Amino acid sequence: MTAKKKPAPKKVAKKEEAGVVDIKIPRSNKTPQTVRGFRDILPVDQVYWDYIRKVAPEIANAYSYDYIDLPILEEASLFVRSVGEETEVVNKEMFVFMDKGGDVVSLRPEATASIARAYINHGMLNLPQPVKLWYMGPMFRYERPQSGRYRQFYQFGCEVLGEKSPVLDAQLMIMAYSFCKDLGIDVVLQVNSLGTPADRKEYVKKLTSYLKSQMKYLDEQAQETFARNPLRLLDSKDEKVQAVLEDAPQILDHLSDESRKHLMSVLEYLDELSIPYELNSKLVRGLDYYTQTVFEIWGANDDRKGQLALGGGGRYDNLIKELGGRETPAAGFALGLERIVLKLKEKEQPLPPLFKPQVLVAQLGDAPRRKAMALFEELRKEGINVIEAFSKSNLKQQLDIANKRGVRYTLILGAAELHDGVVLARDMEGGMQETIPFKKVAKEIKKRFTEEYLLAHPKKK
Ligand code: HAM
């Protein structure tokens, strides 16, 4: 008698238990579109992003921050525990779903929570402190799309973990400020302190009792915000709420000595470096993990009612402990890159492309094209900014491209040049032509881009 085979365990059990429903993907014959709030960033806009991708690592490296890549998908509970259950980001804006294994996951709405998780997961407390990390990548929030507000947007962020000195709070603000300045954007910082959790608790009590006395002036929506988190009323844009708040107690008047000292020290560093800032006791930020210093970066001429912050940050000294790590003070900031790009676009002077082609290799016929392709590779490896138009066979078309891209020299290779082992170098400023032997092309071209040569042969106006 053969033994009965045990039935294989049901693989789908977990999924069924979790009540996962397989979603039927609707069929459509319509031309596909991007999902609302998601965008293509087209080549015409990449010049702005090229500058951002250049300046971000320069700033991060200058202050010894190491780059980290974090996953785009995390357990949804990470954000509930760090950003806070009652915040709009978690409550209304997260892209949460159950995966096929029944796990409840979320596209990351921000990266500070992931940084704190990574710090704990990889035992970074054993590294020399502070640990300084930076990141750049997409975040996702289900917000109502408008100019400067998208459902997928990019952040450049820096986080410093394992050190509570106020010098780091100031330094983070200086980094965010310098990033904008280096891109030619004038900004001003808004600064506040939320104190220690004990300070805040005391302050919320005072604010609550004041607001209770003013309830009749608050509409239903404001009363709802009050019930969820009275602090969130402080940065309400509603004029009636702001009128009520005029006589409200201010958090800056209710800080403990420790918190006041910390804030004063941060401000002294900013003063020393002449960083423009405004103390704003109504700045509370929309994320729950903050303690002590909080700040936002605003366009210098933006008004806080009509416009959007370019970035924000602050201290989060309790977050790592709350996620199960050791007590680890930390602070950081993130800048919204779409909003930075909008600022760059507002500028009168358009940004010049970072890649400036110097030379175009033109060719006439099959055999010259093969040689031209080899020459192109050689010049590229020599560090010359060379471009090509190998799919074109007509010289005029190739010269037009050379003019349009602003190259100084077009190297022309026809059958005669190939036979003689030379290229014809045409100076696009004036049309002078000279022949250069193949072997000397790279050297001769490099010479023509030295400062002395360019001074002696200036561009025609
Ligand atoms: P946050 O203020 O929520 O802070 O976001 C930072 C920046 O991201 C905003 O100032 C804005 O420029 C940009 N941003 C936010 N939402 C959108 C959106 N829907 N569309 C376009 N841009 C947006 C944080 O995320 C914290 N993690 C910052 C931080 C780092 N705090 C400490 N360390």
Characteristics:
binds histidyl-adenosine monophosphate; 2 domains; 17 helices; alpha+beta; elongated; 8-stranded mixed beta sheet; BirA Bifunctional Protein, domain 2; 461 residues; 5-stranded mixed beta sheet; Rossmann fold
CATH fold group of the largest domain = BirA Bifunctional Protein, domain 2
Unreliable runs: none
Mean pLDDT: 93
- CATH architectural label of the largest domain: 2-Layer Sandwich
Determine and state the CATH class of the largest domain. Answer: Alpha Beta
- Give the class from helix and strand content and strand pairing: alpha+beta
Radius of gyration: 29 Å
- The count of strands amounts to 16
Which percent range describes the beta-strand content?
A: 15-25%
Largest sheet: 8 strands, mixed
Domain count, please report it. Answer: 2
Estimate the global geometry from the Cα principal axes: elongated
Number of H- or I-type helical stretches: 17
Give the fraction of residues assigned to helices.
25-40%
- Cα distance spanning the termini: 99 Å
User: CATH H level of the largest domain: which superfamily?
Assistant: Bira Bifunctional Protein, Domain 2
Strand order of the largest sheet: 1-5-6-11-10-9-7-8
Ions, cofactors and other bound molecules: histidyl-adenosine monophosphate
Task: Give a verbal description of the structure.
- Helix content is 37%, strand content 19%.
- The longest helix is centred in the N-terminal third of the chain and has 17 residues.
- The chain is of the alpha+beta class and 461 residues long.
- It contains 17 helices and 16 strands.
- The radius of gyration is 29 Å and the shape is elongated.
- It has an 8-stranded mixed sheet, with helices on both faces. Strands 13-12-14-15-16 form a 5-stranded mixed sheet, sandwiched between helices. Strands 2-4-3 form a 3-stranded antiparallel sheet.
- Strand 15 and strand 16 form a beta hairpin.
- The protein has 2 domains: 245 residues, BirA Bifunctional Protein, domain 2 (2-Layer Sandwich); 93 residues, Anticodon-binding domain (Rossmann fold, 3-Layer(aba) Sandwich), CATH 3.40.50.
- The site of histidyl-adenosine monophosphate has 26 residues, from strand 6, strand 10, strand 11 and helix 12.
